């Protein structure tokens, strides 16, 4: 890699790391931030490897809950025939976009599904404005009329991605959406994170979500540090599945939970199964790429059957 390109990636890494870690971390840990950015420039795979599994969503049953890990925080859910796409990121890199490309972390594993392989999406769900969750180039590859639910103060970003049917909600608010296959209910709840897209940008919302349909419920935690708020979420269950982030905790511990904390919060919410996401896709932090899943499996040592999936492209079905 040329010196100029490495310097370009370091600069982008500093910007993105500040956005991931938070304003306070950015201002108080410049040496750590620079070290992380230099590591980002060195630790760039030549090209993403293929996912271990290839899902077939068009063959999913319509009388069950099926969830597939597409990569990072992107999950495709078949919820009794209603297709839900969460935080879609298909790009090879996430970060600061220029005419010549994007600077920021590069994917280690390719997405299990591309936009052209998706079924018709009935609901697009976006947790917050950070670039590894709200990726404008990826959103532009979806049909503009896709019904979208997103956090407060993020509709302008969706509009720049040419999405035309966008509803913002905040904590405690609910949206009912009627599809050709029936109604799905979306409720936002409070998590521990932050919402600015850039360290100097305005505050934006950040949500966890509860999805309800056919008397069943799912939980998507978005991005979150550890919070006891999940105990209060339990009364809105029971939850067949909790999608929990388990990566990017070192050193971003204030805004990103550890694998053990993810299990603890899912337990507080009373989730039957837990799907570990937000790891093994982009290098966003200092922990080794394999560490989050290893620690997650250890935290659930006596209950391996509660793990919904372990690898990108893998699916789970709950009848």
Summed up, what is this model?
By secondary structure, the chain is an alpha/beta fold. It is built from 8 helices and 15 strands.
Describe, in plain words, how this protein is organized in 3D.
There is one protein chain. The protein contains eight helices and 15 strands. By secondary structure, the chain is of the alpha/beta class. The protein has a single domain (3-318), classed as Ribonuclease Z/Hydroxyacylglutathione hydrolase-like (Metallo-beta-lactamase, Chain A). The strands form three sheets. A seven-stranded mixed sheet has the order 8-7-6-3-2-1-15. Strands 9-10-11-12-13-14 form a six-stranded mixed sheet, with helices on one face. Strands 4-5 form a two-stranded antiparallel sheet.
The first-level CATH class name: Alpha Beta
Number of domains: 1
Q: Helical stretch count?
A: 8
CATH architecture annotation name: 4-Layer Sandwich
Q: What is the β-strand count? A: 15
**SS strand fraction:** 25-35%
- Helicity level: 10-25%
Order of helices and strands: HHHEEEEEEHEHEEEEEHEHEHE
Average pLDDT figure: 89
Return residue spans where pLDDT drops below 50 for at least 5 consecutive residues: 1-11, 20-28
Instruction: For the largest sheet, list the strands in their spatial order.
Output: 8-7-6-3-2-1-15
| Sheet of most strands | 7 strands, mixed
In CATH, the homologous superfamily goes by the name Ribonuclease Z/Hydroxyacylglutathione hydrolase-like
Question: Radius of gyration over alpha carbons?
Answer: 18 Å
CATH third-tier fold name: Metallo-beta-lactamase, Chain A
Shape: globular
The N- to C-terminal Cα distance equals 50 Å
Structure class: alpha/beta
